[in-house]
Amino acid sequence: MKFYYHLLSQPSRALYIFLKLNNIPAEFITINFPNGDHLTDEFKEINRFQKVPCIVDDDGWKLSESIAILRYLMSKYKSIPDHFYPSDIRARAAVDEYLEWQHINTRFSCGVYFQLRKKIDGLDTLWLRGKKFLCSDEISFADIIAACEIEQARMTGDDLFENRPKLKEWYERVKETTNPYYDEAHVIVNKIVTKNQKPKL
Amino acid sequence: MKFYYHLLSQPSRALYIFLKLNNIPAEFITINFPNGDHLTDEFKEINRFQKVPCIVDDDGWKLSESIAILRYLMSKYKSIPDHFYPSDIRARAAVDEYLEWQHINTRFSCGVYFQLRKKIDGLDTLWLRGKKFLCSDEISFADIIAACEIEQARMTGDDLFENRPKLKEWYERVKETTNPYYDEAHVIVNKIVTKNQKPKL
């Protein structure tokens, strides 16, 4: 399988971590989208939507959309621990609910920053209630997707964890569970975060 | 199962059609959100996100997010025809790809009208290529969700089908396959469309 990605793309990072963590055999191919490499005719043949991440399976079958890819991989590789996307229908529905919510919450609001604040507050107050991770006491793909989005927001230089101790604890837990791949996937992001960090008074 | 919905909510309509079409036993309960009925403390107990659609299963278990609900129902009711959300992993991935795309496409763009135009063009040129429905020659939940969104746009009074014959044919096909429930679900929408229709010159 070929995996096309870029570490500045949040869903790319989520899949990157997921693939490495679960030893899924894949050829990792960077598409330099800040340089416009996703806009070539060549890449259009790989993904008609001209976005990363996307995959091409060994027989040439193509798929885009990070969460559609996650579901496909869960069905294909039975060796992946079940908790990433549970097979129990209600546990799975709880993960599905988050995976939909994270989109829908951006849907009716405009302005990226406002969206992120709203979502971060939702994570803190609506999802992280009495559980170690977003949907249960075990990590699922919902946590990986959410943490990678939080990183996107951290690039603004704001301290998102101020007054949100529960969010901070969860974030550390996700990192701990997915490292060293989490840090590996965020090497570019972390450089930008360090550069933009506002000095503490 | 209790199904909370309102016919002005596009994902509510999609589930309404799906439930009726497949004879899924449910108590249909309207939540008059234009009147603010979703903002009561009572409804917050039913859905912490205070949105429709949502369900409460017979034992009190709750779920929101239309597409998470669709997936849950597909797992629960084995009598539902497979093509609505296929069990074959690649056919399913193709439907998943659409169900993600319809969110993601609204993600990085602001302005509802612009979003809808972009999405409608995407339906026409990227999805409806050489197939009767969006993901295969059979109807899936992707088609129902997409048609219900098109209806939302029709309320502006614009003729969305002008110069898009393929889209028009697909739309008629979805209606035909899902009626009488399609028209039943769109009874409020159709009144608004008629009222707002721009006279042809």
UniProtKB/TrEMBL annotation, chains A, B:
Location of the GST N-terminal domain: 1-81
Catalysed reaction equations from the record: RX + glutathione = an S-substituted glutathione + a halide anion + H(+)
Similarity comment text for this entry: Belongs to the GST superfamily. Theta family.
PANTHER family in UniProt: GH16740P-RELATED, PTHR43917
InterPro entries: Glutathione-S-Trfase_C-like, Glutathione-S-Trfase_C_sf, Glutathione_S-Trfase, Glutathione_S-Trfase_N, GST_C, GST_C_Theta, GST_N_Theta, GST_Theta
Keyword annotations from UniProtKB, A to Z: Cytoplasm
RNA-binding keyword on record: no
SUPFAM superfamilies associated with the record: GST C-terminal domain-like, Thioredoxin-like
GO biological process: glutathione metabolic process
Molecular function via GO: glutathione transferase activity
Residues in GST C-terminal domain copies: 59-201
Alphabetical list of PROSITE patterns matching this protein: GST_CTER, GST_NTER
Main location: cytoplasm
GO cellular component, one term: cytoplasm
UniProt name for this protein: Glutathione S-transferase
Any Pfam family matching the protein: GST_N_2
Domain of life of the organism encoding this protein: Eukaryota
Subcellular location: Cytoplasm
